[in-house]
Each structure stands twice: as C-alpha cells, then as structure tokens.
Specification:
Layout: H1 8-22, H2 28-41, H3 46-54, H4 60-78, H5 93-116
Region (Disordered): 143-182
GO molecular function: nucleic acid binding; zinc ion binding
Protein name: CCHC-type domain-containing protein
Amino acid sequence: MQKAEESLEDWADRVLTLATPAFRNLPEKHCMQEAISKFCHGCVDREAGNHACFERPRAMQEAVDLVRHHQYVTQAVDGNRKSKYAVNAVSDEDDRMSRLEKMVERLTSTVQSFSQRKTFSQPRSPGSPLLCFRCGEEGHFKRDCTQPQKTTTKNWGKSGDGRSPLNSNGQMASANPDRPKK
C-alpha cells in the first residue's frame, strides 16, 4: 500500500523492489504484469490506480504516467479541490492482544458450559414400553430375547399369529417366490 506522503515514483520503486524476489520463479513478463497490477491497486488515489490498471500498461513507467494523467485530468475538471484519501490504520499491538485475550475468554467459557451440561439422551419417547419383536413381551429387545424364534421363513403365514409379512404388492409373501399362487 502506498504511504500517504510517498511519491508515485518512490511507490513504483518499492513495488519493483518487493516484486523481484517475490516473483523470481516466474517469467519476467508475468513478474512485470503482477508488479504493475500491485502498483495500480496499491495507489493511495484508488480512482487513478483503477483507471491506470484498466488501461493495461506494459511498463511501470507507463502505469505511473497513466496515474499522473488521470490525477491531472481529475484536478482540471474538479478544480483545486483536495481529494480525500482514506488510509487504513493499523491497530496497536496492545489492542490486538486485548482482543485476542477476550476471544480466548469467550471460547473458554463456551467450552466450560458445554462440559457442564448433562449429555444423556432418551433413546425412546416417554411412556412407550420396551417391546421384543421376537416374543412380544415387554422389558427387553429382540437382541436380548431368550425365547426361541417362533417363526422361520419356511412357515411364514402358517403360524396363525396374524403377523405374516406382506410383499411390495400388499399380498402375502410366500416361502417360495418362484412358485405361482393358486
């Protein structure tokens, strides 16, 4: 970012000085394009920098000339009005440290509140009994059932208990799906 009292030439020199080691592994043409782009986008006069960038200068001096020309034309049109430049202020180290400490405190309190919560959940809705799908009795699940299995695939529908499965058509499923129904 161009400093408030830095001339365009000094800013261009600083950009080129920083760009040379930063883009040393790239072709020289690409390095120059990147440096010119950084120069234009980092100008204190944003409007002039954007104007110069849109013109796609091929050399740094051409970019400097485009920025100067835009500033000259703008001053000629607008008169001697002083442009207002906004400069981003960098916060003090102490200010940054205090913000970091506050964020750590908030994070710590959040973690503590999560650890103090009771983390049990009810696996079923209250009031519904535990039913075994094998024997039908309350108090245990099928995996814990000690009763022998009542029905097998051979006698589905013959047990007389009314729990015969249906196929996808809503008809009784037969033990042998290849056998036609009578």
